[in-house]
User: What shape does this take?
Amino acid sequence: MLSHVRPALVLAVVAGSMVGCSSWGGRDGRSDGDGQRDTRRDERGGDAAGSADWRREMNPQMRTVITKLEGMGGKPIESLTPAEARRQPTPTDAVVALLREQGKPTTPPPGLTVAMRTVPGAEGRSVPVRTYTPAGMRGGGTLPTIVYVHGGGWVIATLDTYDASARALATKVNAVVVSVDYRMAPEYKFPAAHEDVYAVLQHAMSADARFGGDPARVAIAGESAGGTMATAACMMAAERGGRMPVHQLLVYPVADYAFDTPSYRDNAQAKPLNKAMMPWFFGHYLRSAADGKTAWISPLGAAESALRPLPDATIITAEIDPLRSEGMMYADKLKKAGVGVVSRNYKGVTHEFFGMDAVVDEAKAAQDFAAGRLRAALGANSAAVSAPVARPKANPTNTSPDW
Assistant: This one.
């Protein structure tokens, strides 16, 4: 099924300059992910000269967004029902409000054809997706495909909430982006959302795909819980003998069912994501605590043998984010398993910054970095997904973590 859509209010993808910031390993305040760790904090150890005042770390542009969000009257999500939480103002709402105040467009620029479709899912159901296709299929021939998985802790947010990220990837990579409208919790428990993402990924790499993209050049990308499902979908491909994408882009992924890292301590009260929200999200999606120990939820605890078949990865983390530590540790874990990884930690910004390029320069820098990595992977590996993975099944349960 196919129908053209116009999102009600989405962020315009606009140009911005990079903001310099201090580094934990790379230039311009960003790690290049070559095995370096945060020099201020040991990612499993103590809290070195840490900053309990998370607001002090924000750059001015990020502070403006968070101040606007706080002024919109939202309530603590962890105190609400899922239905109530879905009605709360989002960071996207804050960015749109700022753009209006600045007299800037709040509708996306031209250049992409956006449509709703459905693809076959598990157990005979259909999975809705939104496709973003560059106008005129620039560059000639068939474009690569990026399967994109939005965040929201498996409970909140929609395709519209993360529309700016999907548009940015489609435009900057010159690729067809397929954004997955997966089933949400608590209406659908684990592993329902995971299965939807896996189904769309496998469909995108099949001869039956009708997205207009090359099924032999497919990457997967995700933000937050979407990043978790992106890397889990690669594990599922390895376990089930499915086709493997050429690359995985993980933006501040949930990587562990634990709440005791330095970044959880430093950013326990941060916005838009704080420590108290994470057990709330897990509680609504997981059937039991045992689900949280599986590699599909806690990839940081996966055995190296389960990670070794995965494609090269790009991992982006944000300094002011409870998930920073586990994202950085997951990059190290993948490297230890022999997976090629480049990671960058962006200073002065919070969880959810990636889609804010209209008002936060570091978001544009992160998008440009991610797009460059994806272009290289999708251009150099045109046949990498042409055959299913042939290997023994791996147990998704982390019975013997090796970290």
